[in-house]
Amino acid sequence: MNSLIDKYNIPGPRYTSYPTVPYWDENSFTPELWKQSVIRTFKESNAEEGISIYIHLPFCEALCTFCACHKRITKQHSVEIPYLESVLKEWQLYLKLFNEKPKLKELHLGGGTPTFFSPKNLKTLLEGIFETVEIAEHQEFSFEGHPNNTTKEHLQTLYDLGFRRVSFGVQDYDPKVQKAINRIQSFEKVREVTEWAKEIGYRGISHDLVFGLPHQTWEAMESTIRKTMELKPDRLAFYSYAHVPWVKGVGQRGFDENDLPSGEEKRRLYEDGKKLLEELGYIEVGMDHFSLEHDDLYQSLIQKKLHRNFMGYTSSKTQLMVGLGMSAISDSWYAFAQNIKTVEEYQKMVEEGEIPVVKGHILNDEDLTVRRHILNLMCQLETTFDINNSFPELENAFEMLKEMENDELVEINGHHIQITEKGRAFTRNVAMVFDLRMMRNKPETRIFSMTI
Ligand SMILES: C[S@@+](CC[C@H](N)C(=O)[O-])C[C@H]1O[C@@H](n2cnc3c(N)ncnc32)[C@H](O)[C@@H]1O
Ligand code: SF4
User: Which of 71, 234, 333, 394 lies 20 to 30 A from 144 at CA?
Assistant: First the structure.
């Protein structure tokens, strides 16, 4: 396995979208085209499958120095109400585009830290949205909770509003790692919030773990996984640490590149972590995620309903996802759009009555074909190409896959590709072969070392 890791371990997109954000064609995008796309998708899909809403709640009280999310650090809770008022106003701007009441199927509160906001303010926000929608049967409402500031009242209030899923950011329990990432968080605290959530009746409790953090050793990782198992969350995200200090506003500091595990050590953390999680009864779902057999995520995998969007893996699909809040990304299947990235500019645009999207991408027919195949690979680990509805580089892409077939990472049958169990860790490499936007813009991109 090690030589495979050396060969294929290259930075690759996580494919929460295709095209990925760096390859969006911003020249083709205008806010007007975005609105038209929302109107079209809403008409096509609202009655049947409903829509999803993602709300970005950006504030955090302290900076975790490993974090790559769009956030704003402040201890001033006076920011809560004005921000939530802007979110509700932004939602009103979307409502004007709809010809009927939206059916809300999925709702996710992400951040930043949703639990920075008081339960009372979150309730006002959500009631403001709920009075404008019809809530779908079997709704899926979830939120991200920071264990250090999630209270029993947060959990109860959100449960009463229909939330059944919560993901807690754990990362790693090792004191040296926690110090380096400026996130001191005890196991007792995580135990307390997890037990509250169970008592209240949440049934999709998830913990986020990250491998590849500064000073992380296998001993630290193993101990974190074993502690996590004492609490038996229904599912786990097992993220690869994304080191992107050059991205504006990210604020990754407090440790040195030399403190990070090497590429091989990092891959080993993943491989050994995965092995241990599987021994402990978790099943890998798609990429980065593990779940117990009873959990919806695994059930949707076996029923071939697993979907992936900017929220990560989800157990149902809606064609329209409206992202509200600063930096939020929306998806109408035929187009993507991202909101402006600072709180002040976001609030100003909304006040002026503008949907605050500032960049995006309108998908052409070829993008839609590739998007479908990459989604199939990321969710079902297989896809079949129709040569009558493909693109000029298809044969070349299959040529590139031969190397992976020789390494038993994929099985190819005509134009059908199946990623093998051994190949699962390399799913992104397989998807990259079909990433036409990336290949055409950066033909020198490495898919694996052989191509250099
Ligand atoms: C928005 S945060 C979670 C909510 C809350 N703010 C908290 O920290 O508990 C979402 C998750 O993203 C993951 N994350 C953040 N920065 C990351 C990075 N640089 N690489 C990999 N995962 C990261 C962490 O696992 C984190 O729990
Ligand atoms: S990990 Fe969570 S709490 Fe920490 S800075 Fe990022 S979003 Fe904020």
Answer: 333
